[in-house]
Amino acid sequence: MPAPLLRRRWFRVLLGVTAAAIVLPTLVYALGGPGVREAIDGFWRWFDGSLQRLQVMSWVVAAVVAVVSYLDYLSSQTAQQLEQARWVADKAASGDEQQRRVASRAISDMEEDARARGEQVPSFVEEVKDSIRSEMIDAVVADDEAVQELRGEGDDQGGPEPGAIDGAPHRRR
Amino acid sequence: MDHRTSERGENESMAVTTESIQSAAQALNLDPKILTVLTKPSAARAVPVRLHLLGDEPIYVTSQEQADKLERSDRAYEVVTSV
After folding, report:
1. Full 3-state SS string of chain A
2. Which residues of B touch A (CB under 8 A)?
3. Which residues of B are less than 8 Å from A129 in CB distance?
4. For residue B70, which of A14, A22, A137 has the smallest C-alpha distance?
5. What is the pLDDT of residue A19?
6. What's the gap between Cα B15 and its chain centre?
7. What is the DSSP string of chain B?
């Protein structure tokens, strides 16, 4: 048969510590001078303030955690979309007709999904255009003769078109 | 084929090229002069590449790598604009 609780050593120690924690400060408060009372009152005021601050802090922490989680979700979603876009672009650029049909279907599905979710439809066209422009401009820039010809034409017609070669507006890299 | 027929043929071919250049330049938002320059080969640009975007007329670029990239992008362009 188990020993009664009061006979257990750990329980008696716990009881003693609790009583001491209550009785001793009470005695100190009752018997102490005004300085001691003021100090104890000050301690409890600080303790209450801390609890209130902790409550406010808990809201702040919860809000921060929520924002960080949302940003993380957005970032992972963006990464996933980028990966998907890369996959589609790769298939679309393939020389294999079958792969290109797969890409075409994938683009249609992605656009449909985006519309259904009320999100912005991914623009593959601009990406591809940008790549073509970039390669074409690179080919011209690498050829001094072509650059001279363009500059000459530009001079004849009252200056080159803004961004024709140098600092082309849509140039990537 | 007499001289006049040949000349007309050349002019028609040039007209198609110019039309392709204009439409491609518009589609790409690129200065048509850049495309016109690319239609003529030079010492630095000797690698021909035929793009569907330019009505399969050849343009000349600096390297095979560049030609391959353009071909890939051209194929992708066809796909993304057909959706």
Report:
1. CCCCHHHCHHHHHHHHHHHHHHHHHHHHHHHCCHHHHHHHHHHHHHHHHHHHHHHHHHHHHHHHHHHHHHHHHHHHHHHHHHHHHHHHHHHHCCCCHHHHHHHHHHHHHHHHHHHHCCCCCCCHHHHHHHHHHHHHHHHHHCCHHHHHHHHHHHHHCCCCCCCCCCCCCCCCC
2. 27-31, 33-35, 37-38, 42-45, 53, 59-62, 66, 69-70, 72-83
3. 27-29, 77
4. A137
5. 93
6. 13
7. --HHHHHHHHHHHHHHHHHHHHHHHHHHT--HHHHHHHTS--SS--EEEE-GGGTT-EEEES-HHHHHHHHHHHHHHHHHHH-
Quick: pLDDT tens for A30-75.
Answer: 888 888 889 989 998 999 999 988 988 899 999 999 999 999 998 9
pLDDT score of A157: 54
Q: Which residue has the tokens 């294999």?
A: A96
> Per the structure block, which two tokens stand in for A38?
């003021």
Reported ipTM exceeds the 0.90 cut? no
Residues A101-136 pLDDT 10s: 999 998 888 888 888 888 877 777 888 888 898 888
% pLDDT > 70, chain B? 81
The ranges assigned to domains in chain B are 3-82
* Chain A partners within 8 Å of B70 (Cβ): 132, 135-136
